Write the structure tokens for this entry.
Amino acid sequence: MRSVSDETFEAEVLAAERPVVVDFWAPWCRPCKAIEPLFAQLAAELAGRVEFVRMDVDANPLTAARYGVLALPTAMLFAGGQPRATVAGARPRPDYERAWARWLEAAA
């Protein structure tokens, strides 16, 4: 998964033509590292339909603050330039799939 920054967020996420899942994380966050393989798997399975990107909140605090990211990890799906669904904390795959089902199905 590629990384986005405060500077590239608008162009790479908000202006994207397809849904984008942003993984808000930090290098010191163990749960963030635990779900990284899950997001990599989803990114591979949904390639071309849904984008997955990562944002280090320590290096990019403005975007995290703008969207009220208070817990790590937080995964937020953006579609049409707006946040549509958020999952906070490290969760099992079905939790993410349920939260994002509407957009995952539409992108199929």
Observations:
- The mean pLDDT is 94.
- The chain has one domain: 2-107.
- Residues 2-107 form a domain with the Glutaredoxin fold (CATH 3.40.30.10).
